[in-house]
Amino acid sequence: MTTSPDPHATDAMAGPHGAGDHGDEHGHDDHAHGGDAPLGPVDVMAWAAGAVGIAAGLIVFFALAAATGGLG
Prior knowledge:
This protein is an all-alpha fold. It is built from 2 helices and no strands. The chain is elongated and about 65 Å long. The mean pLDDT is about 75.
């Protein structure tokens, strides 16, 4: 006897995508195993922009800390 109002609540464990299903026999991979797609190239401009943004934020932080006497 199930306590769920859904009559198909237990079908998830017995259906085609139950506990033993790993996606191999259905033509798709449920867990992304075996994906041979390589990673793309590193976007140097994006990483450089991120590094410049972090550096600018640190400069502002230290300028405000120095102006308010927070650095001692």
